[in-house]
Amino acid sequence: MTAAAGTIPAVATARTPYPQAAKALLRETLFGAARDELQSRAWSEITMSAIAGAAGVSRQTLYKEFGSRDEFGQAFVIHEGERFLDGVEEAVLEHRDDPRAAVGAALQTFLRTAGEDPLVRILLSDDGTGGMLPFVTTQGMPVVQWATARLKATIEEGWPQAPAEETALLAESLVRLAISYITAPTDPPEITATRVGELLGPFIDRALGS
Fold this sequence. Notes:
Elements: H1 18-38, H2 48-55, H3 59-66, H4 69-93, H5 99-116, H6 118-124, H7 141-158, H8 164-183, H9 189-208
Helix pairs in contact: 1-2, 2-3, 4-5, 4-7, 5-8, 5-9, 7-8, 8-9
């Protein structure tokens, strides 16, 4: 029987390989457990055993997946940051016709969203006894590299004509500025974004201008 006669043609669907899906589920479960633990106590008080127990897995499983407590902490910060960069990327691409406005909107979106998020305030609170702040400052290179790569790809999507070196420099500068302002804010997000836009304006015009 042909398709015209009433058969339903086979549709190929891409499926995530089981090992990859299982790994993703494990990580989500572990990050969720850490998020729950952080609601009631500081990072310095949370052990890998506590996270594993809350996730319903063995401590060996947790260490096998991440290697060390610091590596888990960095991965957790990056995982949480994904939520903010989605909004940042949308803000950038909504202003393709105005690079300066794109940069300002992106920075304002990040600062406002992060500043209003209760978990971010927990992550950035550090009394000097082992909080998570070092994961975006003194030990923050993995986070900086990850965020820079994502922002660079977004800028390249919006302005494919921009020189690669200048795009990379702009992305890294914005990431480092954003981290600095979110960890030690001085003004409301809209004022900070405006001032950064004025400071970087000439470079943005040169790098992304058509």
